[in-house]
């Protein structure tokens, strides 16, 4: 497994986005990024996944083993980005198909079952709900065996109970990988993360997480206390940032 270090200033479209980043994503652990909408979380995800964009890093993105991240990162983007003309098995196995290797159909079917879509394998994405499409995208990431996994709001379209089940599934199947989880949900961060940061324009501040093993019980006192602390920090941050949009109410 490999850890990932990101440090420096991030720019987008010629303007500064976040200054003074110093993030160390520990090898084999789950790290979480939270922060207000537009702060740059998805941009960091794209940077780590090596996807193109109008961003520029004045600093360094490095791995603990010194090897390139190319070909070693699986990413679940905010939008599921499924192939509309392909069935669910073909969607889940797209990585193998693109690499020209034999797709593991049995594993794809098993994963579709694990994400609650058994019996729907022959459907196309248009015949799914938003939350079902998001679970196909989750299965597509879970089938990859990349050491680094970036999950950008992977459970945002799910109802609360399904979300908890998918968190448990991802925690089980991605155990031992270096996972970078982006979320707006304080409970999700507290349940899954070994470490994490709250991002703001001026950099990143570490999260205060329980010492108990993940995935943490959502009923446990230490989980709920950490969730409340994090919610309070997010609330304080939004008051400080004063990001009020002008309101064009009709007169
Ligand atoms: N092509 C672009 N040119 C200039 N700025 C851009 C471009 N694409 C995105 N941005 C800006 O970059 C900033 C960071 O976007 P990003 O998607 O990384 O934020 P985020 O923290 O993931 O937000 P959210 O929580 O809403 O998903 C935003 O303010 C956005 O407006």
TrEMBL record:
Protein name: ABC transporter ATP-binding protein
Alphabetic keyword roster: ATP-binding, Nucleotide-binding, Transport
InterPro entries per UniProt: AAA+_ATPase, ABC_transporter-like_ATP-bd, ABC_transporter-like_CS, ABC_transporter_ATP-bind, P-loop_NTPase
Pfam family, one: ABC_tran
Keyword presence, Lipid metabolism: no
GO molecular function, one term: ATP hydrolysis activity
All copies of domain ABC transporter, residue ranges: 1-226
Taxonomy, superkingdom: Bacteria
Similarity remark: Belongs to the ABC transporter superfamily.
Record Gene3D superfamilies: P-loop containing nucleotide triphosphate hydrolases
Taxon lineage: Bacteria, Pseudomonadati, Pseudomonadota, Alphaproteobacteria, Rhodobacterales
């Amino acid at each position: 497994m490999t850890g990932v270090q990101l440090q420096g200033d991030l720019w987008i479209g010629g303007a500064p986005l976040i200054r003074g980043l110093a993030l160390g994503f520990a090898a084999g652990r789950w790290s979480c990024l939270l922060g207000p909408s537009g702060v740059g979380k998805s941009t960091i995800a794209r940077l780590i996944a090596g996807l193109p964009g109008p961003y520029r890093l004045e600093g360094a993105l490095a791995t603990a083993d010194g090897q390139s991240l190319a070909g070693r990162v699986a990413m679940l983007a905010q939008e599921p980005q499924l192939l509309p003309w392909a069935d669910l098995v073909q969607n889940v196995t797209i990585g193998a198909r693109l690499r020209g290797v034999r797709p593991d159909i049995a594993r794809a079917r098993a994963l579709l079952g694990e994400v609650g879509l058994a019996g729907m394998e022959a459907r196309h994405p248009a015949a799914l709900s938003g939350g079902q499409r998001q679970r196909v995208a989750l299965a597509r990431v879970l089938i990859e065996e990349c050491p680094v996994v970036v999950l950008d709001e992977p459970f945002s379209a799910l109802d609360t109970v399904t979300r908890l089940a998918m968190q448990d599934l991802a925690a089980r199947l991605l155990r031992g990988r270096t996972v970078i989880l982006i979320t707006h949900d304080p409970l999700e961060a507290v349940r899954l993360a070994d470490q994490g940061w709250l991002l703001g324009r001026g950099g990143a501040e570490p999260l205060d997480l329980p010492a108990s093993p993940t995935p943490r019980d959502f009923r446990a006192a230490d989980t709920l206390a950490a969730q409340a602390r994090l919610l309070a920090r997010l609330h304080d941050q939004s008051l400080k940032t004063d990001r009020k949009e002008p309101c064009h109410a009709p007169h």
